[in-house]
Amino acid sequence: MAVDPTGADMKAFLAEAPDQPVTMLNLLRFAEGGRARYDEYVAHFRATSARFGAEVVYFGHGHAPVVAEPGQDWDAVLLVHYPSRRAFCEMVRDPEYQKGTHLRTEALVEAVLQPTTPVG
């Protein structure tokens, strides 16, 4: 399973509405020992993403689901708000941010990274 966006993924994401604010939903499934590694990534993320306007809205570890099909449970959820899709893309390309992306990649076996916008 892919855990990192490709160049084509980023191009399609940016083409949709480059200046629109977005909140990214991250659904995360950890590799063995990945929880601690991901916590390191979140610390790195917080240190490098603020200058792009990124704001962690919520980060929490998952527990046994109340309603879910087998395999639909997640180890953690991260919600991050960005002032625009463009800001997200600029952050992802930033060399300082990229120095810590290996922590995320090493921590995960599966991830969903889904842009969301508010209703109403």
Task: Report on the architecture of this protein.
This protein is an alpha+beta fold and 120 residues long. The protein has one domain: Alpha-Beta Plaits, CATH 3.30.70. It contains 5 helices and 4 strands; from the N terminus they run αβαββαααβ. The chain has helices at residues 7-16, 34-49, 85-93, 95-98, 101-107; strands spanning 22-30, 55-61, 76-82, 108-116. A 4-stranded antiparallel beta sheet has the order 2-3-1-4. Helix 2 (34-49) packs antiparallel against helix 5 (101-107). The protein starts with 6 loop residues before the first helix and ends with a strand. The model has no long low-confidence stretch (mean pLDDT 92).
Main β-sheet, in a few words?
4 strands, antiparallel
Named CATH topology:
Alpha-Beta Plaits
- CATH class category label: Alpha Beta
Strand segment count:
4
Q: Number of folding domains?
A: 1
Provide the β-strand percentage band: 25-35%
Which spans of ≥5 residues are poorly predicted at pLDDT below 50?
none
**CATH architecture descriptor text:** 2-Layer Sandwich
Distance between the termini: 34 Å
Q: Helix fraction? A: 25-40%
The sequence of SSEs as H and E is HEHEEHHHE
Radius of gyration: 14 Å
Helix/strand-derived category reads alpha+beta
Q: Which strand order spans the largest sheet, edge to edge or round the barrel?
A: 2-3-1-4
InterPro entries: Dimeric_a/b-barrel (IPR011008), DUF1330 (IPR010753)
Organism: Pseudonocardia yuanmonensis
Domain DUF1330: 35-109
Pfam family, one: DUF1330
